Amino acid sequence: MNIIIDRDPDAGIRFAPLQSGAGRSLLESAGYHPDKMDTVILIDNGKVYERSDAVLQLVRYLRGSIRLLRVMVVIPRPARDFIYNVIARRRYGWFGKRTECRVPEPGIKERFLEFSDDNSNE
């Protein structure tokens, strides 16, 4: 999430924690069971993306070299999802894990649908 926040200066991407009412509602409306989520989900213009598809769709909106990940779209989805799963399982060992949440700077809290005045953006 921090990678996204840092590379989305226009604040176009909104977040919904799985535990929140907004997150649960979005997942249920997309046909997912909120208590059995183990991956990233992106809802973009009403279309649902998960795992590597979600990441590749998401990076389209970001700035910086992370956008280069889009070239992975040529890799078949099963292979991309395998890579996604390997990274997801090992990410804390490779990148570390924070024991505390990021302190929201002004404008960050509003990007979370649970705190936003406009819960219609996804």
From TrEMBL:
<dbReference type="InterPro" id="IPR052927">
    <property type="entry name" value="DCC_oxidoreductase"/>
</dbReference>
<dbReference type="GO" id="GO:0015035">
    <property type="term" value="F:protein-disulfide reductase activity"/>
</dbReference>
<protein>
    <submittedName>
        <fullName>DUF393 domain-containing protein</fullName>
    </submittedName>
</protein>
<dbReference type="Pfam" id="PF04134">
    <property type="entry name" value="DCC1-like"/>
</dbReference>
<dbReference type="InterPro" id="IPR007263">
    <property type="entry name" value="DCC1-like"/>
</dbReference>
